[in-house]
Amino acid sequence: MISAAVFEPLYRSLPVFLLVLAVGFLSACSSDSNGGGNSGPAVEITDIVEGTGRAVFFGQTLITTFEGRLPDGTVFHSSELNGEDLTFTLGVGQGLRGWDEGLQGMLEGGTRRLVIPPEKGFGDEEFCIADGGCVPPNTVVTYDFTVKEIFDTVKITQTEPGEGRTAEFGDIVFMDFFGFCTSGGPPPFCSEGELFDASNLAGGDFFFTIGGGTVIPGFEQGVLGMQVGSSRSLLIPPNLAYGGSGVRNLIPPWQVIRFEVTLKEIVKPGE
Predict the structure, then answer these.
(1) Is residue 177 within 8 Å of 261, Cβ to Cβ?
(2) Class of CATH domain 4-22+153-265
(3) Domain spans, the chain
(4) Within a 13 Å sphere around the CA of 40, how many CA atoms are in the beta-carbon half?
(5) How far, in Å, CA of 65 to CA of 111, rounded?
(6) Which residues contact 127 (CB under 8 A, 6 or more apart)?
(7) In this structure, which topology does domain 34-150 adopt according to CATH?
(8) What angle do CA 219, 220, 222 make, to 5 degrees?
(9) Do the domains 4-22+153-265 and 34-150 sit in the same CATH topology, yes or no?
(10) 258, 237 in Cβ contact below 8 A?
């Protein structure tokens, strides 16, 4: 876990981090090593439903539903079997190479069918999926993907109401927070649902100025408009968190993170 004493300097290094993040985005968009290359057999693409939203491209985090089938039509993997939507960042190796190649350019809200050769799918060894089926070696697989949303803004859930003052730009806010990884990664990274930091770990108050650029953008955006005593759950996409860099082998690159926050006090400018 990151102590609060370490966490605050990470926030304060934000201008440098944003530069690193921009470089990471360019690398993700241009590199073939992350699954975005077009070498080898092509992915067969069919748009079943044309979307009406924004175009999908590398470096975006997508919220999707999907179904994966074997050549005989057997469903071996799906968001329905998982019991939840699949959220991943395109072009950074979080899914099959065929996903990265085949989903780019489709429109938000659309459904696209990808027929993926084994070279861009599961390769020449059997691959079995937890709560799903197995894919034999050298098997062409078909995926139907629906991109429900390009996830690039903070999702805010109000968990407790407040009263009185409302947090605005320029205010100093005193907070309690708990930060969690949502999917995690292999050791030494945090695991799914693991607490990676909390305001009480250093034993002091956590506070910052809204608009001061000393916290990650998603945290700052999620606190705006809170009233004293209120609590929120903030689901923050990588582009507003730690991007492609992650944090010191604790938070994986391209991680969606969740904060549970409570606003304790507001100090207005000049007070």
Answers:
(1) yes
(2) alpha beta
(3) 4-22+153-265, 34-150
(4) 15
(5) 9
(6) 134, 135
(7) Chitinase A; domain 3 (3.10.50)
(8) 65
(9) yes
(10) no
Collapsed DSSP state (helix, strand, coil) of residue 39: coil
Per-residue pLDDT of the chain (271 residues), as tens digits, is: 233 322 333 333 332 222 233 333 333 333 343 344 567 899 999 999 999 999 999 999 999 999 999 999 999 999 999 999 999 999 999 999 999 999 999 999 999 999 999 999 999 999 998 878 999 999 999 999 999 999 999 999 999 999 989 999 999 999 999 999 999 888 999 999 999 999 988 777 899 999 999 999 999 999 999 999 999 999 999 999 999 999 988 999 999 999 999 999 999 998 8
Residue type at 46 in one-letter notation: T
Alpha-carbon distance of 258 to 232, in angstroms, equals: 10
Exposed/middle/buried for 9, CB within 10 Å: 0-12, 13-18, 19+?
exposed
Q: Which two tokens stand for residue 214?
A: 């000393």
The pair of structure tokens assigned to 12 is 């304060």
Q: What's the start-to-end Cα distance of the chain, in Å?
A: 35
CA distance 24 to 245: 7
User: Which among 166, 182, 269 has a CA at the least distance from the CA of 223?
Assistant: 166
Q: How many residues does the chain have?
A: 271
* Residue linked to tokens 């074997």: 70
| 3-state secondary structure at position 146 | strand
The 8 Å CB, 24+ separation contacts for 3-8 are: 3/197, 3/201, 3/202, 4/197, 4/198, 4/199, 4/200, 4/201, 4/202, 4/204, 4/206, 5/202, 7/197, 8/206, 8/214
